[in-house]
Write a structure and sequence with these properties.
Strand order of the largest sheet: 16-15-14-13-7-12-11-8-17
Strand content: 25-35%
Bound molecules: nicotinamide-adenine-dinucleotide
Length: 397
């Protein structure tokens, strides 16, 4: 029987539920060197976290993350809280010798992300691993996109076109949840969903963003205050309004280190678009396009084919030969959002079990944070061109 890794998870709402589903499933689907055991979940409200533990399948619950991090019978801390607590929890967990999986964006600022990288580097010397949870990388179609780039099928990448479109705050009466508060979320659409397309495009192209010119907008500047238990299904509590302190939309032009030019758009005001994460790459030999709302498919155009046969073709990414798909269902039997998290846990357990560093590392996630920071600074200076330093230079500094 494989070795056990005892998991402690902090936060039990949206991501807590998605991660729990994945921890429950991962060893039933994949053959791995270590087995996840769901030991304890942490939240701030005793009765709610107790109910969540039962619902999500955790053996125990606690209301004190420090106590969880200090326990000898916990090997992994899984951080599923808003960004304002990522740094404090992850740094304490790494110092206590726990492997850490931290939700994205890694932190609310570059300084916090740098401190997390330093903690991860110190822990790494003792074989302690860390990873940031950019789950969209683990969509099989996105992994195929990367394979097409790596194998040269697209040639030289000229264009990267990425959007992440949602519409859940179009209604000005939607309350001021934590995602609309800078001190909790760091930024708005930029850090919440823009971070995903920054990571995904850097991952599929293998190229780093080197500079940006950005603008951001906050369309609704004041919103009703939310009830205490505010998640995405929040309601106004009737006690007044407060200021929205983050961007509602962030748009930017970028250059990548391999010479490609790129456009990015992240917004929660794209009426009718629910989770419209789309990436298209145009290269000298071909193009590829991905849309998460059709996540089992990829569009591929191969200009080396005879001219009479050229055209975008639809690849149904459900064959056992496709990344992650060997363990799921027969070809054509589609997978969904939750599977990206099962894949994330698979890669994490595989890396920890075999003693290698998982990716995206905290350094990779600092790289995303540096792009977000450059976008914010560019937008604040009338879209001035703003360079993005490599994360590794930042670590060495
Ligand atoms: N990978 C993805 O696709 C994805 C999607 C959504 C959110 N996220 C990220 O996941 C993180 C959590 O977002 P969410 O949507 O799950 O938020 P949420 O509001 O649904 O849940 C947050 C949870 O954290 C708990 N919490 C907050 N502060 C805490 C503290 N100090 N101690 C203990 N528990 C605390 C809350 O009680 C709640 O259970 C954020 O970093 C967010 O950016 C990632």
């Amino acid at each position: 029987m494989s070795r056990e890794l005892r998991i402690g998870m902090i936060g039990y709402a949206f991501m807590g539920a998605a991660h729990s589903q994945a921890w429950r499933t991962v060893n039933r689907v994949y053959d791995l060197p270590v087995r996840a055991r769901m030991v304890a979940v942490c939240g701030r409200d005793e009765s709610k976290v107790a109910a969540a533990a039962v619902r999500l399948g955790w053996e125990e619950h606690t209301t004190d993350w420090r106590e969880l991090v200090a326990r000898d019978d916990i090997d992994v801390i899984d951080v599923c809280t808003p960004g304002d607590s990522h740094a404090e929890i992850a740094i304490a967990a790494l110092a206590a010798g726990k492997h850490v999986l931290c939700e994205k964006p890694l932190a609310n600022s570059v300084d916090e992300a740098r401190a997390m990288v330093a903690a991860a580097e110190r822990a790494r010397a003792a074989g302690v691993r860390s990873m940031c949870g950019f789950n969209y990388r683990r969509t099989p179609a996105a992994a195929v996109m990367r394979q097409l780039v790596e194998s040269g099928r697209l040639g030289v990448i000229r264009h990267v076109r990425a959007v992440y479109l949602q519409d859940w705050i179009v209604d000005p009466q939607f309350p001021l949840v934590w995602r609309l508060q800078k001190e909790k979320a760091g930024s708005g659409a930029l850090g919440d969903i823009g971070a995903h397309i920054v990571d995904l495009t850097q991952f599929v192209t293998g190229q780093r963003i080197t500079g940006v010119s950005a603008l951001t907008e906050t369309f609704v500047k004041e919103r009703p205050l939310p009830s205490a238990a505010a998640g995405l299904a929040a309601e106004a509590d009737g006690s007044g309004t407060g200021p929205v302190t983050v961007d509602d939309a962030a748009l930017f032009l970028a250059r990548l280190e391999g010479g490609a030019v790129a456009t990015y758009e992240a917004t929660r005001f794209a009426t009718g678009r629910k989770n419209g994460l789309r990436v298209e790459l145009n290269g000298s030999l071909g193009s590829v396009a991905f849309d998460f709302e059709r996540m089992n498919e990829l569009e591929f155009y191969d200009s080396t084919q005879p001219i009479q046969e050229q055209g975008f073709r639809r690849i149904l990414v459900t064959e056992p030969e496709h990344p992650y798909m060997e363990a799921w269902w027969p070809p054509g039997h589609a997978i969904g959002y939750e599977h990206t998290f099962t894949h994330e846990m698979r890669d994490f357990l595989e890396a920890v079990g075999t003693g290698v560093d998982p990716t995206p590392s905290f350094v990779d996630a600092l790289g995303v944070q540096l792009v977000l920071d450059a976008v914010t600074r560019s937008a604040e200076s009338d879209s001035a061109w703003t360079s993005v330093a490599p994360a590794l230079e930042q670590v060495a500094a």
